[in-house]
Every structure is written in C-alpha cells, then in structure tokens.
Amino acid sequence: MTEKKSAWSSIPAVVAGIATILTATVALVSVIGGNRQAADPQVDQSPSPTPTPSASDSAFPVPTGGVAPRAVIAPKSLDFGQLGTGKSSQQKVSVTNTGNEYLVIDEVTVSGRTDSFTADGQECSEPAGIAPEDTCEITVTFSPRVTGSLAASMEVKHSGNTSPGTVALNGEGRLLDL
Q: Both 31 and 91 in a single domain?
C-alpha cells in the first residue's frame, strides 16, 4: 500500500527551490549591473561603505565650490581735485557682484570730513541685493564747506566675504570757484 502525502509536506522543497532561483537571479542581476564580485561566492559579500560623492561623479550632484557673493568695488579712491566752497561735484563708485549668489549691500557710510563728503547708495539698496554679474553705482558728492585739503573714507558693508569695502575720498576746498 502507498502512503498518501499531505500538501504541507512538499513546502520545504518548494521554498528551497525558490531560494535557489532568487540566489541565481541576484547573481545574474549583479553581473549585468557591473558588480561581478556578487556572482562569485568566494568573494567577501559584506556590505561596502556608502560611496563618497565627488564633483566628477555624475550620480551625485555636488556643488563645485562656487563663489558666494563677492563684491568688487572700484575705484578704490576718488580725488575730486580743487573745488570752490559752496559748489558740488559728483563721482561714481561701482559695486560689481562677481559671485554666484545675490550680494546684499547692508550700509554705505562716510567717516572723516562728513561735512564735505556724502555717499548715496540708494541704487544698491534693493532688498534682494545685486544679482550675480550685475553692477550698481554709489554716488559720492564732494561739497567743500571749508578751504584746504579734505579727506574722508567711504565704507560699504555687504554680504560678501570681503566686507566691508572702503574707498578713500580726497578733495581740496578753495575760496574761488575753479
């Protein structure tokens, strides 16, 4: 007489067969995907460390060390020459953002002979700042109130790493309008 087997008795054989198929599939996928070591059971299969991204690895978009906001202020000095007291003369100072982020001008101040030199940075005071590769101008006015050699310094505080930038201001007040 033959013995009847229950359906449950064949489960271990089925599971073993599925495990064999899965192992073969993983090995095949690994070989096709370029990880040939995974197909060789003699190779250490321990998990490798997470790869470190680099600028040359296109799978990892890594910033390449771009330049944050950078102010280039020019010229570094203004000479108004001789000017009669009570008269005014204006010159411009440019602020160029050579970085790759917006440059914010926080404050433009004059120290020294503030009775004769003023600075108007209104054009540079946009709340968003100066766009990359854009330029704004600060208007400096010399209005001597006294005679003689006059000097001041203009300071431009900004969000770049070279803040503050300074510009030397010079002029001579004369009694006569020259």
A: no
- Cβ 84 vs Cβ 174: under 8 Å: yes
**Beta strands per DSSP E along the chain:** 71-74, 77-84, 89-97, 105-112, 117-120, 135-142, 148-158, 165-174
Same domain, yes or no: 75 and 155: yes
Q: Tell me the pLDDT of the chain (178 aa) as tens digits.
A: 555 555 545 555 555 556 555 555 444 444 444 444 444 445 445 444 444 443 433 333 333 456 799 999 999 999 999 999 999 999 999 999 999 999 999 999 999 999 999 999 999 988 889 999 999 999 999 999 999 999 999 999 999 989 999 999 999 999 975 4
Nearest partner of 70 among 110, 116, 129, judged by Cα: 129
Instruction: Write out the residue range of the structural domain in which residue 16 sits.
Output: 12-39
Secondary structure class of 25 (helix, strand, coil): helix
Left (φ > 0), alpha (ψ -120 to 50) or beta: where does 17 sit? Answer: alpha
Q: How far apart are CA 29 and CA 46, in angstroms?
A: 17
Question: Domain tally for the chain?
Answer: 2
Could you tell me if 68 and 104 are in contact, meaning their C-beta atoms sit under 8 angstroms apart? Answer: no
Q: Is the pTM of this model over 0.85?
A: no
19 and 90 co-located in one domain: no
Residue type present at position 105: I
Distance CA 23, CA 89 (A): 85
